[in-house]
Amino acid sequence: MESFRGIVASGGVALGPARVWRRLVVNPNLGQKTDAPAEEHRRLDLALSETRRQLEELRTQLQDRLGQDHATILDAQLLILDDETFLGQVREAIDDQRLRAEAAFSRAMSEALVPLDLSGDALFRERMTDFRDVEQRVIRALSDHVSTLPTLEEPCILVSSDLTPSETAGLDFEKILGFCIDGGSDTGHTAIIARSLGVPALVGLRRASQEIRHESMLALDGELGVVHSDPDPAVIRRFESRIRRRQGAQRRLAGLQTLPAVTTDGHRIALSANIEVPEEIDIAVRNGAEAIGLVRTEYFYFRHEVLPNEDEQLGEYLDVLRRAQGRSVTFRVLDVGGDKLLAAVGGVREYNPFLGLRGARFLLANPEILRTQLRALYRASVEGPMRLMLPMICDLTEMLAFEDHARRVRESLLEEGHDFDTEVPLGIMIETPAAVAMAEELAARAEFFSLGTNDLTQYVLAVDRSNLRVSRFAQPQHPAVLRAIRDAVRAADRGRIPVASCGDMGSNPVLAMLLIGLGVQGISASAASIPALKEAIRSISFADAQAWAEEATSLSTVEEVDAFLRNKTHGLLREFVSRSKASGGDREPGDEA
Ligand code: PEP
Ligand code: MG
Question: Whose CB among 7, 176, 418, 507 lies 3.0–4.6 Å from 204's, allowing a Cys bridge?
Answer without folding.
Answer: 7
